[in-house]
Write a structure and sequence with these properties.
2 domains, 2-dehydropantoate 2-reductase activity, Rossmann fold, about 45% helix, 11 strands, alpha/beta, N-(1-d-carboxylethyl)-l-norvaline Dehydrogenase, domain 2, KPR_N, binds ketopantoate, binds NADPH dihydro-nicotinamide-adenine-dinucleotide phosphate, KPA_reductase, transmembrane helix, eleven-stranded mixed sheet
């Protein structure tokens, strides 16, 4: 049974602790601005750099309601802390998780880790390192740099958060801690099906949009693109069902259409990566789904998903070489 006095005491303690956001990119900076303006103590830490001097940046978030949210952010590194005394939020690229699971080991002291990244099985490294509290958020928003100090932010809807390893009480407390009016989170009991729904949506968006060099609204505006999305979604169902994930193609398609409409004009994160000559997260999207299908002998069902993933990776690699 829930001990209310103890819960309230721990909630108050967590409210007073800082929040550490790892990954000073579009999502990390957007969240840091909203939390700072809501009065939380926030440390934004570089994900790809372990040790460097602290810097200060004024960031402006342009929201969908045309309001501007401005805050000064302090940006440091993991080496500045021997211990992280509060909630740790991962807003770095998921391919950095293996190395981060090693540099974060021993620094969390039982504090929760909240993963804000796209992809399937991205929590694996932290599970292997026996992190006690791992929570996963499915991001339903877009953040895009307009210039180095301005980010255009379009939320789609509340971002669900569920337990990978941990407990309900900690989840409730951490949601309370990171909730703001502009960057909304909600508690979710079935996080695995939402992860799969989003990953399949990402397989469609994060390959087709970069390959066409077009914004997210294409599926909402164009019938041919919409039909392609439907075909790709249907092709993922055999794998999802074989993995015990109870989702329907209609669920995923509606998700794609909602994201497409709400983020019309924004570029998908993978296209932003390619345009900035950065590596992509394809290995945790199309390539991971194709790998899982191969593993259980149904690789043929994922041929198109795999090919789109490989083409997107190739486009990113060519762009990296042409820097
Ligand atoms: N932008 C968007 O609209 C959306 C993004 N997402 C997801 O959110 C996550 C963050 O994306 P976003 O903010 O757009 O990405 P950005 O590239 O803007 O920022 C990610 C940050 O990750 C860090 N990073 C890069 N490489 C490594 C590495 N090898 N090891 C550790 N850290 C690394 C860098 O941090 P630093 O500079 O601090 O070193 C970088 O600033 C991704 O998983 C993305 O898929 C999901 C939905 C929408
Ligand atoms: C599909 C979308 C826009 C939703 O948040 C996304 O995940 C991305 O930009 O990578």
């Amino acid at each position: 049974m829930l001990n209310l006095a103890a819960f309230n005491h721990q909630s108050k303690a967590m409210q007073e602790q800082p929040i550490y956001i790892i990954g000073a990119g579009a999502v990390g900076k957007t969240l840091a601005v909203f939390l700072t303006l809501a009065g939380r103590q926030v440390y934004l830490l570089r994900g790809s750099v372990f040790n460097a001097p602290v810097t200060y940046e004024e960031m402006t978030i342009l929201a969908a309601d045309n309001n501007k949210y401005v805050a000064k952010l302090e940006i440091g590194c993991l080496a500045d802390f021997t211990r992280l005394g509060g909630l740790v939020v991962l807003a770095n690229k998921a391919f950095g998780n293996q190395a981060l699971s090693v540099s974060l080991r021993g620094k969390l002291n039982g504090n929760p880790l909240l993963v804000l990244q796209n992809g399937l099985n991205i929590e694996k490294a932290f599970l292997k390192q026996n992190f006690e509290h791992i929570y996963r958020c499915v991001l339903m928003l877009t953040c895009q740099f307009e210039d180095p100090h301005t980010i255009r932010y379009k939320p789609v809807r509340e971002c669900p958060v569920g337990i990978i390893r941990g407990d309900e009480e900690t989840l409730t407390r951490l949601l309370h801690k990171i909730q703001t009016l502009q960057f909304r989170f909600s508690k979710c009991d079935e996080i695995q099906s939402l992860i799969w729904k989003k990953v399949i949506a990402n397989c469609v968006f994060n390959s087709i949009c970069p390959l066409l060099h077009i914004d997210n609204g294409i599926f909402y505006r164009n019938e041919v693109a919409r039909d392609m999305a439907k075909e790709l979604i249907v092709s993922c169902m055999t794998l999802a069902h074989a993995k015990g994930i109870a989702i329907t193609p209609e669920d995923v398609f509606n998700n794609v259409m909602q994201i497409s409409q709400m983020s019309d004009g924004q570029y998908i994160s993978t296209l932003q990566d390619i345009l900035h000559h950065r590596p992509t997260e394809m290995d945790a999207l199309n390539i991971e789904l194709a790998r899982l299908a191969d593993e259980i002998g149904i690789g043929a069902t994922m041929k198109e998903i795999a090919l789109l993933g490989r083409l997107t990776k190739l486009k990113a690699a060519i762009n990296l070489k042409n820097m």
